[in-house]
Amino acid sequence: MEAEFSEMRNELQSRDALWRRIQLECHQLHTEILKIGEYKDMQEIQIKHQSSCVQITEQLENKNAELLLLAQSQEHQREELNKIRNHLYREEQSHRSEQERMKTEISDLTEELHQKEITIATIMEKASLLERQLKMELEIKDKLLAKQQLLDFRYNVIKSENTHLKEMV
Length: 169
Description:
Layout: H1 2-45, H2 50-168
Helix pairs in contact: 1-2
């Protein structure tokens, strides 16, 4: 997209340069026409140079025709330049809109990520608390199991003594 903008800018600059050259040529032609007009006036005073006057008039007409063609070309160039400018403006607006949409999307995603990070931190806190509770419960159960095993052992010892005593009796 940047390449298109650059290409359009280069095209605009090229057409502006052409426009300036055309204006300069128009100015030069106008100056020549004025000079030719002055020359024509001088020739009218001098009747002996009538044939030159006809030639100058033809040149003037030719220059006028050239000026007319240049003016038409200039108008066409102006129209093309306006079309390119309008296209460039639309492209820039589209690019800006796309940038704004992306900024909004990035902002939304950042907010969503922030909320997920908060949720993860909360879950990690709860998991840590549950882990501590589970360790405490495991310690209590280990102690109870150890007591149970001790009681079972004592019970078996007493049972075996009882059996032994019954046999003796």
